[in-house]
Amino acid sequence: MTRQARRIQRGAVALCLTLTAATGCDKFNAMSDPMVGCYASKKTGPVEVRVSKQSDAYKLAMLLDRKWDSASAARPGPAIYAQLFGADSSKIAEGLMAVGAPIGLFRAKPGSRVRGLDSTTDYFVFVLLGGTSAFKVECGPKAQS
Length: 145
Prior knowledge:
The chain is of the alpha+beta class and about 140 residues long. It has 2 domains: about 1-30; about 35-145, no CATH class. It has 3 helices and 8 strands; from the N terminus they run ααββββαββββ. It has an 8-stranded antiparallel β-barrel with strand order 1-2-3-4-5-6-7-8. The chain is globular and about 40 Å long.
């Protein structure tokens, strides 16, 4: 790692610590990690899926019957991508799957089109019975419950 890269990393950590004290660091994480944030099945729909990150641990939450059901999440490997997406697996940039729960959030590589994915979003939610496009939306106060 270069000296400049270390300086940038130290500055980012200091900024995150400052933001954590003031805001919980959610906005900083959302800016630095494309998976962190809130998602809806419609561009202007209500938040249905929320991804948060504390240190290196992800948490994926889904709104079910007006209650948030959350689980720890991990990044799956290429074998899982192949199992879920078949021929489109090479078009997946990254993903998160809830540990012990049948839900995952995936992001397509820029410019890639994944079968069944709306052309106006790069995100896709996959649940036990299938999947749907997901749109990154603003996290409002109701999304924090």
